[in-house]
């Protein structure tokens, strides 16, 4: 082995990689859920390609599903029925593929939310955050392409909606529609083009970006929660081989088993009930998959509005919710790490996770965004809600329009207050300790609840936190142009409110030592932190 190391240095590098540590916490498994769902997607998708025919040629169905015999269908739709009813295990694998796609997108979304709330996007992981957001975008595109392939009435309705969104793009919308569909809707090219995109283009990009994403995780090392012994300069966890690999392999088997059970027990996308797509038919109670439900809801809530400019009609009721809203959403996602860095100013590398309560504004923004998404998702089925609750659909639409602005506002302020309240509760626990459940009688004849000191691990978890100060540079009174006034005002709003935690000089020294970034002198930083606290 020594001779091999001398001639092939990669062996030593590989040995070091196999011993790399990975922290052990349930929230870190969300990314693995997405990875293993993608693996199930690839395996089931490869099997389905052997039987699916991406052809728009119409024929008279003569398969084994009796209710549709004699109906004119496309070759694509007929092949899906063949997979479902004639291929052994076809329905099971079709449904496993569909369920895996939903879990894949959901796992990426929740994983992104976890990274956002814990601040794991900060330096040096800004680029990896953009890779993750791109993965999320590609996952949405991959799901939509696969959802549209069967050419059934439900997916055809969604494809028609997508074509309407493309047409709403000013000036070039018609040209884009003809380019994508190869002529008038629905044309004879769209399914074959979606098929190539679904099985070749997007999966290739997804797998490549997953490799880049995991490479960045290895290079930058994994984030971890603050605990005794864990600092900004180390990683404490299980080695990749054999312990973490064994646990991860077990998680893959669990994910595959759960998806197989869901495919066997819960029906999804019964295309034989929907029938083949026809432009003059509409599917009642048609709802898209949840990850594009917000787009459907935005289209339904937008009031009718259009403008004629120089012979061109701009359909604002489709263009704003269908094009501008998703573009703004992903622009905010891509730019958020750089926006927070702009507010906080230059800072060292951050490898310890934030507790969501310690960043009230960031957590409140995330909660408000989730609540806005929930309102739009409800709006995507406002006709179903009207039928179930026997209410006028106009009333539900108006109520959801108000809720789209009121609910995020309320959720933001409630979440920020809750985070500050949790910080205050941590302060009380540090001062008074943990309650024991015992009641003691005082010397004066009264009664009080007994308390015990918090464990050292809990004290470390509470005290070790990143507390950037609001920026003030660039807006001094002597400057002629206070060009940083807006940035500083936003920084005060973002970082200004928090509950100060009591700590002894020794605890402050330990916190500064844990938070010292790579390349910084931890002892010097700890001494400086203590001196700053003692200076009046």
UniProtKB/TrEMBL annotation:
Keywords: Membrane, Transmembrane, Transmembrane helix
EC code: 7.1.1.8
The keyword Membrane is annotated on this UniProt entry: yes
Cofactor(s) required for function per UniProt: heme
Region (Disordered): 512-536
Reaction catalysed by this enzyme: a quinol + 2 Fe(III)-[cytochrome c](out) = a quinone + 2 Fe(II)-[cytochrome c](out) + 2 H(+)(out)
Domain Cytochrome b/b6 N-terminal region profile per the UniProt entry, residue ranges: 1-226
Sequence ranges of Basic and acidic residues compositional bias: 522-536
Record-annotated membrane-spanning stretches: 33-52, 98-117, 129-149, 161-183, 195-219, 248-268, 318-339
Protein name, entry field: Cytochrome bc1 complex cytochrome b subunit
Tree of life domain: Bacteria
């Amino acid at each position: 082995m020594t001779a091999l190391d001398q001639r092939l240095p990669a062996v030593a590098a590989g040995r070091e990689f196999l011993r790399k540590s990975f922290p052990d916490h349930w929230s870190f498994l969300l990314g693995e859920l997405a990875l293993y769902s993608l693996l199930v997607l690839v395996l089931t998708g490869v099997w389905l390609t052997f039987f699916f025919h991406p052809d728009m040629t119409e024929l008279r169905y003569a398969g084994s599903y009796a209710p549709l015999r004699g109906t004119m269908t496309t070759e694509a739709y007929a092949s899906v029925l063949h997979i479902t009813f004639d291929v052994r295990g076809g329905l099971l694998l079709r449904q496993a593929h569909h369920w895996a796609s939903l879990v894949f997108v959901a796992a990426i979304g929740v994983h992104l939310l976890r990274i956002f709330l814990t601040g794991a996007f900060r330096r040096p992981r800004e680029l990896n955050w953009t890779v993750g957001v791109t993965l999320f975008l590609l996952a949405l595109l991959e799901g939509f392409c696969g959802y549209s392939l069967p050419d059934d009435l439900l997916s055809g309705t969604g494809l028609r909606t997508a074509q309407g969104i493309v047409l709403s793009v000013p000036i070039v919308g018609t040209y884009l529609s003809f380019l994508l569909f190869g002529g008038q809707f629905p044309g004879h090219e769209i399914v074959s083009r979606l098929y190539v995109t679904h099985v070749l283009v997007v999966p290739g990009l997804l797998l490549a970006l997953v490799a880049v994403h995991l490479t960045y995780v290895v290079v930058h090392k994994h984030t971890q929660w603050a605990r005794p012994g864990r600092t900004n300069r180390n990683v404490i966890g299980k080695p990749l081989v054999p312990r973490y690999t064994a646990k991860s392999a077990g998680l893959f088997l669990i994910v595959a088993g759960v998806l197989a059970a869901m495919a066997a027990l819960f029906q999804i996308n019964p295309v034989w009930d929907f029938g083949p797509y026809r432009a003059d038919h509409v599917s009642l109670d048609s709802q898209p998959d949840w990850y594009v439900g917000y787009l459907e809801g935005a289209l339904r809530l937008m009031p009718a509005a259009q403008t004629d400019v120089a012979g061109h009609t701009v359909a604002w009721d489709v263009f704003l919710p269908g094009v501008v809203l998703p573009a703004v959403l992903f622009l905010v996602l891509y730019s958020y790490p750089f926006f927070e860095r702009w507010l906080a100013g230059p800072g060292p590398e951050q490898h310890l996770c934030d507790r969501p309560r310690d960043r009230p504004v960031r957590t409140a923004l995330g909660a408000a965004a989730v609540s806005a998404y929930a309102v739009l998702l409800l709006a995507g089925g406002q006709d179903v809600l009207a039928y179930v609750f026997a209410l006028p659909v106009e009333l539900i639409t108006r109520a959801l329009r108000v809720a789209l602005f009121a609910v995020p506002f309320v959720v933001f302020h409630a979440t920020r207050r809750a985070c500050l309240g949790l910080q205050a509760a941590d302060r009380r626990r540090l001062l008074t300790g943990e309650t024991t459940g015992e009641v003691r009688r005082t010397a004066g004849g009264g009664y009080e609840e007994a308390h015990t000191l918090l464990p050292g691990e809990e004290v470390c978890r509470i005290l070790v936190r990143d507390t950037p100060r609001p920026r003030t540079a660039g807006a001094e009174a002597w400057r002629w142009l206070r060009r940083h006034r807006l940035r500083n005002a936003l920084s005060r709003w973002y970082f200004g409110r928090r509950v100060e935690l009591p700590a002894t000089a020794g605890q402050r020294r330990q916190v500064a030592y844990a938070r010292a970034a790579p390349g910084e002198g931890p002892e010097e930083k700890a001494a400086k932190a203590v001196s700053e606290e003692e200076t009046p």
